[in-house]
């Protein structure tokens, strides 16, 4: 365990000037505990065993010393980072790119299932310095000979316990057996189960052990809620919340500078005046924007973490994390913008299914469970809008001289013979028709690229029957009663890989969890047969994801995913002897028809 008392800034860690300049650009000032404890030994070439939760800043802890030791003249990969999911692989790859901004000629390549092989092959042939990938795709490239690790100097296992839980640990050990023995290694894991301890003992060389436990205190006067993105477009969800919540000033946090402007423009188009705050905006303009927020001339600010650093506006009633932060401390700093000066505040977080590990990390570190929130319904939005409109009518009746307006109504009534109530109704329709779009219209709004991908569309339903889910690398047992349909909130799918192909439940769980960005605990029952298997997945799979999963390879076979529609009282057709089933994706192809005929014959023989 290392102390960070003497480490006040990154300059004290002897990092190259190019890296320090990049850190200044992104607003990093003081190293986190894991960074202060890990960077020095890694710079000195030592192996490191780090026990730290997600959100402690460990990506920078291994990326910065790794970058400091690279030889940019060498074209073969010098460093490999293994991550459990493609989302994390992309995130780590983006972090490398950000830190290496002033290292001209630096190349990092993320490799993961679902991405085009040809593009990855071209980049590997051209030469890369760092590869960040999921175990399965890294293995594929190594077996093809397209990933040459003969010059590898550094290997990082990120979230090793997550790789164990997802069934990738055998793949990880295979990779470790193929790489040069003389190389530096860093392993990071939130927990240390026996399988991970065995790897550390076998593959790490007298590692520096670093254990970091983050406990961050959040203001108890701030109500924290999370909406697990499901079924509704992200921007539409935001506008529903803005309609229903009692708000004053609002800060909406996004990850990138570009997103601040895009989201502010889209909110303005929906009738919510909003301003962007990011590092590209001149300082004078930023000061003017903040002053407008303080004065009440502006109610919504869309900001990045860096731009909002040090922002202190008492009237902020709500902080909305439109993009979940990758760092726990960033989350705490964000929500600390509300609940000031003895006031209460509200913090709302948007999270996709694939981001549950970040959500859990935030809850662990803050010691608080974040309350799940239901998205306001279209009816609630309409009721709230009507109540606000009635209040506006009351305020106008109390505060204005309406004689001119009354004369206009009386003239219209006498001229056209229309009852006053009808005229008033028409005026209401005119006013509301020119105001913000209704929730129902908003739901069909154009996509803004922030819908949360697969996790954003999948229904967030956790079945109580999933108590036997995977733990510590153990996989769920096949269902014995083939006539039982999927649990509530789940759909059954058939995949064209089975016992004859050597597939195991862990292979199926790992592939789907990685490719579909579904947390492994939300993958339901798996039944493996000779030439096919069935798996239960959350309802509401997007068409793009359904199409993508058809082409995913497991145990040398394409999944050829097809949806199995259950009928009440009937079994699923993928079980021999079942009476009725429909394939919801239409034509299943010749092999699908042959399998169905075979199942029908078997059913007759057994019937």
TrEMBL record:
Pfam families: DbpA, DEAD, DeaD_dimer, Helicase_C. Residues 457-475 have a biased composition (Basic and acidic residues). Its EC number is 3.6.4.13. One of its GO terms (cellular component) is ribosome. Residues 234-381 form the Helicase C-terminal domain. It catalyses: ATP + H2O = ADP + phosphate + H(+). InterPro entries: CsdA_RRM, DbpA/CsdA_RNA-bd_dom, DEAD/DEAH_box_helicase_dom, DEAD/DEAH_RhlB, DEAD_box_RNA_helicases, DeaD_dimer, DEAD_helicase_DeaD, Helicase_ATP-bd. This is ATP-dependent RNA helicase DeaD. The gene is deaD.
């Amino acid at each position: 365990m290392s102390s960070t008392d003497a480490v006040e800034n990154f300059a004290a860690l002897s990092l190259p000037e190019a890296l320090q300049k990049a850190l200044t650009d992104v607003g990093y000032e003081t190293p986190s505990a894991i960074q202060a404890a890990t960077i020095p030994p890694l710079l000195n070439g030592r192996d490191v065993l780090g026990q730290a939760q997600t959100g402690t800043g460990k990506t920078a802890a291994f990326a910065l010393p790794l970058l400091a030791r690279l030889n940019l003249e060498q074209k073969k990969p010098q460093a490999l980072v293994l991550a459990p999911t493609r989302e994390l692989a992309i995130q780590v790859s983006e972090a490398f790119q950000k830190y290496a901004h002033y290292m001209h000629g630096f190349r990092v390549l993320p490799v993961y299932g679902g991405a085009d092989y040809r593009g990855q092959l071209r980049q590997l042939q051209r030469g890369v310095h760092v590869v960040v990938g999921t175990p399965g795709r890294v293995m594929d490239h190594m077996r093809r000979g397209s990933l040459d690790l003969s010059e590898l100097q550094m290997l990082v296992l990120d979230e090793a316990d997550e790789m164990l839980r997802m069934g990738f640990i055998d793949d990880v050990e295979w990779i470790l057996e193929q790489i040069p023995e003389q190389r530096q290694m860093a392993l990071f894991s939130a927990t240390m189960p026996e399988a991970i301890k065995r790897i550390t003992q076998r593959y790490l060389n007298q590692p520096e052990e670093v254990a970091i436990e983050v406990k961050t205190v959040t203001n108890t006067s701030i109500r924290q809620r999370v909406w697990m993105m499901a079924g509704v477009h992200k921007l539409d969800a935001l506008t529903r919340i803005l309609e229903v919540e009692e708000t004053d000033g609002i800060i909406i946090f996004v990850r990138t500078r570009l997103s601040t402007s895009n989201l502010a423009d889209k909110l303005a188009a929906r009738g919510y005046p909003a301003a962007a705050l990011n590092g590209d905006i001149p300082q004078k303009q930023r000061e003017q924007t903040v002053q407008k927020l303080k004065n009440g001339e502006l109610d919504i600010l869309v900001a990045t973490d860096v731009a909002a650093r040090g922002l202190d506006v008492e009237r902020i009633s709500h902080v909305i994390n439109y993009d979940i932060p990758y760092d726990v401390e960033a989350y705490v700093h964000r929500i600390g913008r509300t609940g000031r000066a003895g006031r209460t505040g509200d913090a709302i977080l948007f999270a996709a299914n694939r981001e549950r590990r970040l959500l859990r990390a935030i809850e662990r570190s803050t010691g608080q469970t974040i309350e799940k929130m239901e998205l306001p319904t279209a009816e609630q939005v309409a009721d709230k809008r009507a109540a606000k409109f009635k209040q506006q009518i009351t305020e106008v009746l109390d505060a204005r001289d309406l004689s001119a307006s009354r004369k206009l109504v009386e003239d219209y009534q006498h001229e056209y013979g229309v009852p006053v109530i009808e005229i008033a109704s028409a005026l209401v329709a005119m006013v509301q028709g020119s105001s913000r779009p209704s929730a129902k219209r908003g739901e069909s709004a154009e996509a803004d690229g922030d819908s949360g991908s697969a996790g954003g569309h999948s229904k967030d339903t956790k079945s109580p029957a999933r108590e036997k889910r995977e733990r510590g690398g153990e996989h769920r047992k096949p269902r014995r009663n083939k006539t039982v349909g999927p649990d509530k909130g789940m759909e059954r799918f058939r995949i064209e890989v089975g016992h004859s192909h050597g597939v195991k439940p862990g292979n199926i769980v790992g592939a789907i969890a990685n490719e579909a960005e579904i947390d492994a605990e939300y993958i339901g029952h798996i039944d493996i047969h000779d030439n096919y298997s069935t798996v239960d997945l959350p309802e509401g799979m997007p068409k793009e994801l359904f199409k993508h999963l058809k082409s995913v390879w497991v145990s040398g076979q394409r999944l050829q995913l097809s949806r199995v529609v259950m009928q009440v009282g009937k079994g699923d057709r993928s079980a021999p002897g079942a009476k009725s089933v429909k394939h919801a994706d239409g034509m299943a192809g010749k092999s699908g028809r042959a399998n169905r005929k075979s199942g029908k014959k078997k059913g007759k023989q057994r019937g």
